[in-house]
UniProtKB/TrEMBL annotation:
Source organism per UniProt: Cephalopterus ornatus (Amazonian umbrellabird)
Keyword Cell membrane: yes
Localization of this protein: Cell projection, Dendrite; Cell projection, Growth cone membrane; Cytoplasmic vesicle, Secretory vesicle, Synaptic vesicle membrane; Early endosome membrane
Top-level taxon of the source organism: Eukaryota
Gene3D superfamilies: 2.40.160.110
Biological process annotations from GO: establishment of protein localization to organelle
Pfam families on file: Lamp2-like_luminal (PF01299)
Membrane topology field: Single-pass type I membrane protein
Described purpose of this protein according to its UniProt entry: Plays a role in short-term synaptic plasticity in a subset of GABAergic neurons in the brain.
Parts of the chain that traverse the membrane: 207-226
Gene from which the chain derives: Lamp5
The protein's name: Lysosome-associated membrane glycoprotein 5
Domain Lysosome-associated membrane glycoprotein 2-like luminal: 21-183
Length: 250
């Protein structure tokens, strides 16, 4: 059964299709159907040598990948530079009760990053070089309603704790489009669920336009009312206020 499942599973690195050289695209397919899709740019900031030095490690194009799709749990594993670096992303789908009734959502539940400080591309003369693992604890990130994809263009930072003297490794994610469950069709994302930062930026971009339209409408209405008022007052008979002038009338 395991051999048959492996034969039916396909994993594809489609990063070459992205116009952004820093952005990677990964697809996991099972039974000839897409079950996990991920697009993002990623970089790790790893302190070493008593935090006096740090390495900036991008996720390299052409990374080897593995994937696992499940009803409620999915995984994506990426390795590059001859497995000197390995990133594992774990996704979980679950439900909870709200005032509107039961609702399902998925989230990024765990991250594990393994790195080798003896690798010389990004680490320069590290003291006591070797492999270390940085992991998240009690993570609840990229929370998205079930049946939707997650989208966030803004950069997000997630902190991981390393086995290397409990140092903090920073994962920088940007230009994210991700869906680990319930993909509607082959290579097609579901409707996107935008992150709060993108929603706020979109509001900040459209708010001046909305306020400008409202202000313009108020000015037009005010000028219209003023014009109508002038016409009405011009057509009215002027009644003299001095009563002595009444005898000259009639």
């Amino acid at each position: 059964a395991a051999a048959r499942l492996a034969a039916e599973q396909e994993v594809e690195n489609l990063s070459g299709l992205s116009p952004n050289p820093e952005k990677d695209i990964f697809v996991v397919r099972e039974n000839r159907t897409t079950c996990l899709m991920a697009e993002f740019a990623a970089k790790f900031i790893v302190p070493y040598d008593l935090i006096t030095e740090q390495a900036d490690i991008p996720l390299s194009r052409g990374a080897e990948m593995k994937g696992k799709c499940g009803t409620n749990e999915s995984e994506l594993e990426l390795s590059w530079l001859e497995q000197a670096y390995t990133l594992k992303l774990f996704f979980l789908k679950e439900g909870h009760n709200t005032s509107r009734g039961p609702e399902a959502f998925w989230r990024l539940s765990r991250i594990q990053f393994t790195y080798d400080t003896s690798e010389r591309t990004y680490f320069k003369d590290a003291v006591s070089p070797g492999k270390h693992t940085a992991s998240s604890h009690w993570l609840s990130a990229l929370v998205t309603p079930a049946g939707k994809s997650y989208e966030c263009q803004a950069q997000q930072t997630i902190s991981l704790i390393s086995s290397d003297h409990q140092k903090s490794v920073q994962l920088l994610l940007s230009e994210v489009r991700l869906q680990p469950f319930d993909i509607p069709a082959d290579f097609v994302f579901s409707e996107e669920h935008k992150c709060p930062v993108d929603q706020r930026e979109q509001l900040e971009e459209t708010l001046p336009l909305i306020l400008g339209l409202i202000l313009g409408l108020v000015i037009v209405i005010t000028l219209g009312i003023y014009h109508i008022h002038l016409k009405l007052t011009a057509s009215q008979v002027q009644i003299p206020r001095d009563r002595s002038q009444y005898k000259h009338m009639g």
